[in-house]
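Action item from last meeting closed. Structure (521 res):
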């Protein structure tokens, strides 16, 4: 992939910000031809920052001017990663701008919802391609299973609650079957409860696949389904013991909870509740799993690294726009007050949910989350973090496509538009209860978990070695790596040394088992 080289970045710092980044008021066709490819890259990044500042300041005319220029340089179908990334962010910024006009915004939501429903069948395929081509979900499943296996040593009856929703995958539990079957003393009686709002067909497929695999491994197995979102479970918290009843948590079973990339949704504000669609059922059905794709090794430089190392520290906003942003987001301003209120409400909702989970007395709760700060109150802070974070993910996908000689370009384009693009819109364009993509870094998750009465369970060295073995076996070592945090309490999954996901393990603070770490083998 042709990523903009180092001299592109250095040229940005040697030119005045006003001439490089301020939109030209005329000559929209001619100026593009006058710029070299490298200069277009620098110009795009500058325009994105400038546009975000103007949107934050509510400067419609100046933001529109930036968007017009971005659209001449960027496209979802462009050959270069930065151009496609810029197109996705331009879409999110335009939606953010429109949201400042509530009447227009609500009117447009109907047509947007209609087009999205027409593409719903493509989203699953896009998620599957993302799973196949980048290792983060596989690593999350593997390390989660390793932690569960160690925590359940000696247990004869095990109940695993899967709260991962759209990130849930039968592959994870098939791998756990393998691990339990190989342990000393044989496998336990295993029950898996999946919380998922994908519909009866999706849950039936998972049930059928797991039942078939469990029978092949001669593992006593039961599958329960709760057709709901994690958000919906919060509605149960006002009724004593309702969460325990819905998840069918029983005495005599050792409980493990797995949640991948879902807890951040509970940080959204309380003012829009879930649909209350929680239903419990046993489901039959059938499905087949496609094989895992192998992604070839990547070249040494990534867009995410380039953007973070150079541009993130050197790009300067125009003084007028910067002052407008500071003013609109000062602690005393109405905008800042409005932004803090949903965050506080969401934190309360999450806290109540975690306390309810603690009340279930799990032996272990394993949490995998994007390692990013997309929950900041300040819009510009969220925008900057998102540009760096999703720049890295776009780069991962581009390197995978290049490794397959661009045979997967159509699939990559769907992932960028339907999965990552939707997440970018969630971070950049939405506010309040509608902003579900509230990713936070592990340090903040640690504070939230401990405030809810949970304590850390160290992730073992053996789990890290298993994860590294997976990277090597799939040809992903080098660009990707698994890092054990200095205290041995979590894993970070990195792309060119930038952490993009974290996995950590927790248990109720009152539960004092022998030792603080799950194992060393």
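Sequence:
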């Amino acid at each position: 992939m042709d990523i903009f080289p180092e001299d592109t970045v250095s040229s940005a710092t040697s030119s005045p910000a006003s001439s490089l980044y301020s939109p030209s008021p005329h000559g929209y066709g001619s100026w593009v031809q006058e710029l070299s490819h490298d200069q277009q890259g620098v110009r795009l990044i500058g325009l994105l920052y400038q546009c975000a500042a103007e949107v934050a300041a509510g400067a419609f005319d100046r933001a529109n001017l930036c968007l017009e220029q971005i659209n001449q340089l960027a496209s979802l179908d462009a050959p270069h990663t930065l151009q496609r990334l810029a197109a996705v962010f331009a879409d999110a910024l335009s939606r953010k701008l429109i949201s400042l006009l509530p009447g227009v915004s609500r009117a447009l939501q109907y047509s947007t919802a209609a087009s999205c429903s027409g593409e719903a069948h493509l989203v699953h395929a896009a998620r599957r391609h993302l799973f196949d081509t980048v290792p983060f979900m596989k690593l999350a499943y593997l390390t989660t299973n390793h932690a569960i296996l160690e925590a359940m040593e000696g247990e004869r009856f095990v109940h695993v609650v899967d709260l991962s929703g759209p990130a849930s995958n039968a592959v994870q539990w098939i791998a756990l079957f393998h691990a339990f079957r190989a342990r000393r003393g044989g496998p336990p009686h295993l029950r898996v409860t999946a919380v998922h709002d994908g519909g009866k067909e999706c849950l039936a497929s998972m049930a059928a696949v797991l039942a078939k695999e469990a029978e092949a491994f001669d593992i006593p197995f039961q599958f329960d389904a709760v057709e709901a979102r994690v958000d919906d479970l919060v509605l149960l918290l006002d009724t004593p013991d309702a969460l325990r009843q819905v998840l069918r948590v029983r005495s005599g079973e050792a409980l493990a909870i797995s949640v991948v990339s879902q807890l951040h949704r509970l940080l959204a504000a309380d003012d829009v509740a879930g649909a209350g669609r929680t239903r419990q059922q046993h489901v039959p059905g059938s499905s087949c799993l496609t094989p895992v794709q192998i992604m070839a090794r990547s070249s040494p430089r990534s867009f995410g690294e380039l953007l973070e190392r150079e541009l993130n520290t050197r790009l300067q906003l125009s003084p007028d726009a910067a002052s407008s942003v500071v003013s609109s987001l000062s602690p005393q301003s109405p905008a800042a007050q409005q932004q803090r209120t949903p965050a506080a409400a969401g934190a309360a909702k999450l806290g109540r949910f975690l306390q309810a989970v603690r009340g279930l007395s799990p032996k272990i709760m394993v949490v995998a989350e994007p390692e990013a700060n997309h929950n900041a109150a300040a819009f510009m802070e969220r925008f900057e973090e998102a540009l760096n974070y999703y720049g890295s993910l776009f780069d991962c996908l581009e390197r995978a496509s290049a490794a397959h000689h661009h045979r997967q370009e159509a699939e990559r384009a769907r992932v960028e538009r339907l999965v990552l693009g939707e997440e970018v819109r969630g971070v950049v364009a939405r506010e309040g209860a509608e902003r579900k993509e509230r990713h936070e870094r592990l340090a903040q998750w640690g504070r939230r978990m401990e405030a809810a009465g949970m304590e850390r369970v160290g992730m073992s060295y053996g789990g890290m070695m298993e994860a590294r073995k997976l990277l090597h076996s799939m040809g992903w070592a080098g660009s990707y790596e698994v890092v054990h945090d200095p205290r041995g309490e979590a894993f970070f999954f990195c792309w060119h040394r930038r952490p993009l996901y974290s996995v950590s393990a927790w248990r109720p603070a009152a539960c004092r088992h022998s030792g603080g770490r799950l194992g060393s083998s």
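Note appended to the action item: The chain has 20 helices and ten strands.
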